TrEMBL record:
Reaction equation(s) it catalyzes: an alkanesulfonate + FMNH2 + O2 = an aldehyde + FMN + sulfite + H2O + 2 H(+)
Enzyme class: oxidoreductase
Enzyme Commission no: 1.14.14.5
Protein name per its UniProtKB record: Alkanesulfonate monooxygenase
Originating organism: Xanthobacter autotrophicus (strain ATCC BAA-1158 / Py2)
Entry keyword set: Flavoprotein, FMN, Monooxygenase, Oxidoreductase
Amino acid sequence: MSHPVPLPATPASQSPDIFWFIPTHGDGAYLGSETRQRPPEFAYFREVAQAVDRLGFKGVLLPTGQSCEDSWITAAGLATATERLKFLVALRPGVTTPAFAARQAAALDRLSDGRLLLNVVVGGHPAELAADGIFLDHDARYAQADEFLKIWRDLVAGKTVDHSGKYYRVEHGRLDFPVVQQPHPPLWFGGSSEAGHEVAAEHTSVYLSWGEPPHILKDKLADVQARAARRGRKLKFGLRIHFIVRETGAEAWAAADRLISQVSDEQIESAQKRFKVEMDSVGQARMAALQPGDRNKLEIAPNLWAGIGLVRRGAGTALVGDPKSVAARIREYQEIGIETFIGSGYPHLEEAYRVAELLFPELGVDGRRRKVSDNIVNEFAVGSHLAERRRAAVS
């Protein structure tokens, strides 16, 4: 274990970058239920993407896996339907070759005019990886990822690559069509094991974590930063978390309770057993360790709720509360170095509006939304010219 180095705090006065999530595995109003479920259709993905682009979110994360629509194809379609939005797309060492992945990245970076970000996903579900033809153990997968990224970075940087390693062999590899972003689209990465920290420190620019309490997360971020510092590098940090924001705290907690109201105890037991038995992800184990064992005591830190992790693998926590309370928690994460927050909520379209309308003003985030003019009179605003006429009539 490396000796942690102090983390540079992000000033609380600085507005964070807020990303959103494209639900390519489907969406709905209740976890663990088919009630008011929305199927994974491109038309719906486009609705969400266009909404968050208009609302002022900086980018979107597209998940990856057997249960999701392909993130590359989906991002290519959404890039042509949006203007400013950045796309954080999964780069999967082991699933593809470095050369083919380099060509894909260059094509999508050009198609999106430099709006591509890459999320390096090694994977932590051996059965799912086996279905993709990957049969390496945990640390070997990260060793393969390290070799993959060395080749990929050289190719995208315009170098001719000759490589003979443990996992890959390349002869006179090159990329004929360049990327827009130099030397390559930014690499993001989330991995909580020691092997994952090494890959992050060596290759990536943004380290991602799921939503653990700040006092727990701080040491993990410091360890990654120490490993990067030994290489003369400095990382930025992002947090993957859900949001349940309402005008009052009581409304927010009621919405949280409603979200899991149709989840049975049997579903929870089955999901938790599956996470422990089927996965070798250290990050997933850390998420599971946050579960209190009582569905009525899921607030594991102020405004931090573990209810989503009852049945969802991966990001299992949410910030719940009124805008001021949630903004205060975000500032606590900023104090330990988090600059980007990748949010989501159920359903994702409606919750994107709630976050933008309620939380953005508290954080000083520019929502880019056109305001009703003072000269317009309707049920949402009384125009200034009407007020002037009333004053004139009184005088």
